Automatic annotation (TrEMBL), chains A, B:
GO terms for molecular function: DNA binding. Keywords: DNA-binding, Transcription, Transcription regulation. The keyword Flavoprotein does not apply. This is Crp/Fnr family transcriptional regulator. One of its GO terms (biological process) is regulation of DNA-templated transcription. Gene3D superfamilies: Jelly Rolls, Winged helix-like DNA-binding domain superfamily/Winged helix DNA-binding domain. PROSITE patterns: HTH_CRP_2 (PS51063). It comes from Pleomorphomonas carboxyditropha. Residues 133-207 form the HTH crp-type domain.
């Protein structure tokens, strides 16, 4: 749904200069913490250059949620940590100023829709990973077994013809149709499987599918 | 960040009639499945009336991700299931038509930003629930213990004064400062705790905090 739209080129032009007037500029070396995600924090950041990582730390692991690049903007009070994955140049402003600037530059709205849509897709993949990790592993093994027994080389990778419905695959791996369908779609979104046609899949990189966490 | 904005009132006016011209109208009884979340599904839905639930089903549980109300719109290829939580009237169109209509009615972009922002916050709460469930329970117990030993009634609920930093709370429950901070913020976002001031919290409903999953 989000229109493909980047404001990276707008931001460096005269219109960007006007939009970013009054913003505070800060530089961050690689690895430095930009936001501790405190919900009391207030404001908006705009990435001028570099790459940011949004993440959460729980008791036993760290979870990357989303990466930002040039032209991306986000709020600081999301509750997530944000660090510089690369040396980064950022602009900051408060919410009220950002809201005003946004209304003066309505085309920036498309950029926001694009970022929010990308973040939403990325968050959903994280939820699927957390919920469906076990079954995704079993399906990965199921496809690897088929690739070894009956796979054929194809331009998209090893092609596997499974003459079974999702319901049949679900029975083979001992799960429900719905969970199996979601998990297969999730592997497709991860780029580990490609659906070529009805019951025909390609595995672009068997090693990547095997080492799937 | 998402500006508070609803297009529910625009959709029922003359502008809405123009915007929704060519959309397909469908009615759904309560409990009926609207989208199976197949990533091959294509299109946009707009809620005219009723309430929709977006959810995922894994092997051992069902997880509600987001609720839609009148004026909300979303894509069908998210990979999530969508059902009618109440009897609902919807409008459907394909992506290309929606994109065109959106460009003709740019103020609809604000509605999209608002929905995407709300969905993002809701998805993040789900991730926190999945990642931080154990530690949230321990913190809930910690606050309930304090409420029983030293709580005072206040207009916001039982007020608890913890003369300790987050770092000290983390040590008491045997966790890291960062995980404890995220988990406390998550309980605040859930409405189970209210931060009154430095080290002072209120518990609006002890029973709700106790029965926290």
């Amino acid at each position: 749904m989000p229109p493909r739209f980047s404001i990276a080129n707008i931001l460096v032009g005269p219109q960007g200069e006007e939009f970013l007037r009054g913003f505070i500029h800060r530089s961050y070396p690689k690895g430095s913490l930009i936001s501790s995600g405190d919900i009391d924090e207030n404001g908006i950041l705009v990435v001028m250059s570099g790459r940011l990582r949004m993440f959460l730390i729980s008791e036993d692991r760290e979870l990357s949620l989303f990466y930002f690049g040039p032209g991306d903007m986000f709020c600081l009070h999301s509750g997530c940590l944000i660090e510089a994955a690369e040396p980064s140049e950022l602009k900051f402003t408060d919410l009220a100023t950002f809201d005003k600037k946004l209304r003066e530059n309505p085309q920036i709205a498309w950029a926001l829709i694009s970022i929010l849509g990308r973040a939403l897709a990325s968050f959903l993949r994280t939820i699927e990973d957390l919920m469906f990790h076990d079954i995704k592993q079993r399906i990965a093994n199921y496809f690897i077994d088929h690739a070894h027994s009956s796979g054929r080389p194809s331009p998209s990778g090893v092609e596997v013809e499974i003459r079974l419905s999702v319901e049949d695959i679900a029975k083979s791996i001992g799960s429900s149709r719905q969970a199996t369908s979601t998990a297969i779609n999730s592997l497709i979104k991860d780029g580990l499987l490609v659906r070529q046609g009805r019951g025909v899949y390609a595995i672009p990189a068997i090693e990547r599918l095997r080492s799937f966490r």
